[in-house]
Design goal:
Layout: H1 16-23, E1 26-31, E2 36-38, E3 46-52, E4 55-60, E5 66-72, E6 77-78, H2 80-85, E7 92-95, E8 99-105, H3 106-115, H4 117-143, H5 147-162, E9 168-170, H6 175-182, H7 186-198, E10 202-205, E11 208-211, H8 214-220
Length: 223
Amino acid sequence: MTCPLREGRLFCDLPPDVVKSLDAITSAATYPKGAVLFVEGQPARGVFVICNGRVKVSSSSAGGKVMIVRVVEAGEVVGLPGTISGRPYGATAEVMEPAQVTFIKRDAFLQFLRQHGEAAVKVAQLLTDIYEAAHQEVRTLGLSRSASEKLAKFILDWSTGHAQGQDRLQLALTQEEIAEMIGVSRETVTRVLTEFKKKKVLALKGATLTILDRTALEQLAGN
C-alpha cells in the first residue's frame, strides 16, 4: 500500500480494497544477485512481482546456448504465462542485482482474478504485451541482416523501454548478456560497439552508454 512504484503498475494501481485483497495473499523476500526465482520447465508455482532490482528472463537450448528473452524492471511481473495456463515455466528467471520480490501462489492468484475482474483485464493486457514483445524479438533476430543492425535495434529498444527514450542509458548488462539478448557472440558485440564508437554514433563509459547520433543509429537499425 505504501510502495512508491504503485502508480501505473500492473496490480498496484487498482482500487485500495482490491490492493488489500492482493496484499493478503502475497509474501515478500529479498534475493541476492544470481538467485534463481524459477527454472525453465519447472511446474509454475505462481507469479513474482519485482519490487526493486532487476531480473533477467532467459531460455536455453539442449546444447547449453542461452538467450536472454527480456530484462524485468521494478514493478513488473515474471512467471505470468505459466501461472495462468498451468503449463511449466517457459524460461528461467535470475536476479541480476539484489532485489526485493513479492510472490503470489498460483491457486490464490487465480482465485483473486476470478473475484476481481479489473485485475483480470490487466493480466490480459500484460499477456498481450508479452506476446507482442516476443513477436518483435523474433522479427529482430530473424529479419535483421547483420550484427550491427541487431545491436542498433537493441540499443534503441533499450532507450525506449528502460530510459524513456533518452540518449543517456544505464545498460546494467554485461557484453555477454547483450550478446545473449541479440543472438550473437560476445566478441561480436565488442567489435560492433567499437565500430559504433569510431563512427561517433555512441559513447560508452562503464555501464553508461550515450547515443551521440540517433539518426545514424536508426539508419544502422534499418528504421
